Amino acid sequence: GGGLTSAQLALLATESNWCKEVTFIQRSKMNPRHFDIGNEWMGPKRGKLLEDFWCLDVNERVKKLKETRGGGTIPPEVILELAANQGKKLEVKEEVEVTKVLWVDDRLQVFLDDGSEPDFYDMIWLATGAQNHIDHYSALSHLRQVL
Length: 147
Prior knowledge:
This protein has helices at 4-15, 46-55, 58-69, 76-85; strands spanning 22-25, 31-32, 73-74, 90-93, 98-104, 107-112, 119-121.
């Protein structure tokens, strides 16, 4: 993931005694906003936006919701916390995707699409804002054989 929940998890992990290092991986760049929707949806033009929204058919409303919400937003003060921890116990990798995960010697070997050498991890947390299941992520398909 790349939003507030994943940022909070990364920060909590850096504060823990049981975690030596944390890598926070995001598919996109950090999106510094206080809310998942733009301010116009909370301002004086909110009524007109809502009226226009409810005039759309169901499929158009779904499309509009996805466009408006965006996602992956992190409040600026949390981004500052991440920056303060980077280089200590935290490494932040933006605009990369996990392409493959292998189980090697009781550790997870993670490959990214940025051409970097694969890294080894003890655990992976998926904070994607969606229901997670190993079958939904092609990069994790190799793990199906060992789980």
